[in-house]
Every structure is written in structure tokens, then in C-alpha cells.
Write a structure and sequence with these properties.
Elements: E1 21-24, E2 31-34, H1 36-51, H2 81-89, H3 97-107
Antiparallel strand pairs: 1-2
């Protein structure tokens, strides 16, 4: 058929070989094939560990000595008086949750 951009398939075969993943040792020397079941099991173990990690989280926003301390008033940030009056003139009365967390870190001296 003239102008046909597709070629005709003459033969199609299916192989019984299953694809494998490969691993390398720490020195990147020799690749060792592993089957898909082993790769799937390793992925499952890693994923379960990530999901089931239990850790103690300390809320540092309540500690006034922490750089993550959250403020409840703009005055607590010890802003320059011009900056403070600018904040109030823009209609802000108190810091939002994001501002009370982020502003102390942004304004801290490095």
C-alpha cells in the first residue's frame, strides 16, 4: 500500500525469560542479577520500614530559647519601629500561624 507509514509485522515471538533486576557491589565491580520476586520483597521491606518508623517529635515552637519559637504578637519579634508601624498600617493585627513560625527564623541574626 503506497504511502503507508507502518510496516507489516511478519513474525512475533514471546520468550519465557523473565526480566531481572541487577545489583552492584560497593565497588561497582560485578553485577549480580536478582529476580523480580527478590526485588519486590526488598522494596516492600524498605517501604514498610519507612511507613512504620516511630519517632519522638519535640515541639520546639513553645521553647522561647529555640530559634523555632512562635510569637503571638508582632511586638515579640522586636521589629524596627518603622517596620512594626508598617505591618499594622497594612491591617495585620497579629501574626498568622505561618508568620509566627517563620518570622523569628527569618529575622534571626545568623
Amino acid at each position: 500500500m503506497p504511502g503507508n507509514q507502518y510496516s507489516e509485522v511478519k513474525e512475533l515471538s514471546v520468550s519465557d525469560e523473565k526480566p531481572v533486576a541487577t545489583t552492584t557491589n560497593q565497588n561497582n565491580e560485578e553485577e549480580t542479577p536478582i529476580n523480580l520476586a527478590e526485588a519486590s520483597l526488598m522494596t516492600k521491606v524498605v517501604r514498610e520500614h519507612i511507613i512504620n518508623v516511630k519517632a519522638n517529635v519535640e515541639v520546639q515552637q513553645k521553647d522561647p530559647n529555640s530559634p523555632l519559637y512562635s510569637v503571638k504578637k508582632f511586638e515579640d519579634l522586636h521589629l524596627n519601629s518603622k517596620l512594626l508601624s508598617g505591618v499594622y498600617s497594612m491591617g495585620f493585627n497579629k501574626p498568622s500561624k505561618i508568620q509566627e513560625t517563620a518570622l523569628p527564623m527569618l529575622l534571626a541574626d545568623p
